[in-house]
Transposase (Uliginosibacterium aquaticum), 231 residues
Amino acid sequence: MSRLPRLYISGMPQLVLQRGNNRAPVFLDETDFQQYRLHLREAAREAGVALHAYVLMPDHAHLLITPPDEGAAGNMMQRLGRRYVRWFNDRHLRSGTLWEGRYRSTVIEPMHWLLAASRYIELNPLRAGHAASAEHYPWSSCRHHLGLEPDPLITDHARYWALGNTPFERQAAYRALLESGTPLDELDAIRYAANRGWMLGELPLASGELSPNRRLTPLPKGRPRKKPLEG
């Protein structure tokens, strides 16, 4: 059975997951984290991809991006993966693959899911027990969104700007969003979409101009029902 192409809808954000092979660590120390961020910034700029949120965990990375065209996300991830793996292998005297196959991704309906996905990403260290609070974890975009430290990697999405008329209002609203936590059903929906590649949310009603490159949801399981005979 042929593999479905990665879902793409023009102008809509995507959630990307890149995991270490066999869940092995891909960042062994602070220098590794810093180098990945450097390669990420370069790859995103070269591919024209806007990065809205991210977190780098010891064995995986989550990115929230908006690519300018269908091939841009793959272009960015190819550049990023190739450069970081070469650097990582040279530094740690190893060879072979580092990542667990292809990166995973899904399209996000931004009105209802963009900030939810950003919160999901930035609360990852808290859920995994790597930090006492999201803002104390140094390898994510959380401190940027809370106004604690500007991050040159980040291009704020319009949904973040809609949180308030001033930076203080936006940062306070985003902090409240983080402190409310991620509901379990929201957590399950994001994880399912990210790992399976199906759209998170639904297309807006006024979306006649949007043209997905493939179906948005899985086909029903089982054989299709036969039509009853007429007469």
Observations:
- The radius of gyration is 19 Å.
